[in-house]
Write a structure and sequence with these properties.
alpha/beta, Rossmann fold, 22% strand, 27% helix, 193 residues
Length: 193
């Protein structure tokens, strides 16, 4: 039954965030960027993994530009070419060439010398479909972030979920492999779990 409940939550929250107007999306992205730039964790962080938004996710372009202006190194997830279901994180700069992966999501064209080992990332900003008051995160259902960070307890503590306010739910039914988040940022709040 948890799988059915998860699918229902996923469908409802995806619809809610897709119904946000472009003005609401832009305001949310600006507010979220400000929330992140005010985090004390940012001060001592140089290598920051972000993602390019997709499917109504909160936009990250403004945040990425702000990180570049601060001289931070930004990394984007890339589907692992040999280990199915896992992610690599590649250095992302204004001139980085992008391609669409098999899910239609933009990612850098793979360049092995630009890959950053997960253990060396200072902060990992993750997309999500929904989150709850216990820090449980529900993604799109592919398990990429859960698998990639399952054996990385230190990296898990550096993960921050990014979401619209409408993506918070009362309770997410969990599975054994789910990796909870220590923090979620929305345009109006910082949740620490």
């Amino acid at each position: 039954m948890p799988a059915d409940a998860r699918q229902l939550i996923r469908k409802q929250i995806r619809q809610a965030r897709q119904q946000l107007s472009s003005a609401q999306q832009q305001q949310a992205a600006q507010a979220l960027s400000q929330q992140f730039l005010n985090l004390p964790e940012l001060l001592n962080s140089q290598h920051i993994a972000v993602y390019l938004h997709n499917d109504g996710e909160i936009a990250t372009a403004e945040l990425i530009n702000s990180l570049w202006q601060l001289g931070k190194s930004v990394y984007l997830p890339v589907l692992h070419p040999f280990t199915s279901g896992y992610l690599l994180f590649q250095h992302y700069q204004p001139n980085t060439l992008l391609t669409s992966n098999k899910y239609g999501i933009a990612e850098p064209i793979l360049s092995c010398q630009d890959i950053k080992v997960v253990a060396e990332l200072d902060l990992i900003l993750t997309p999500l479909v929904a989150f709850d008051a216990q820090g449980q995160r529900m993604g799109m259902g592919g398990g990429f972030y859960d698998r990639t960070f399952a054996d990385q307890p230190l990296a898990q503590r550096r993960m921050i979920g990014l979401a619209h306010d409408c993506q918070q739910v009362a309770c997410i039914p969990t599975e054994a492999w789910d990796v909870p988040l220590p923090m979620v940022l929305t345009p109006s709040a910082v949740f620490r779990f």
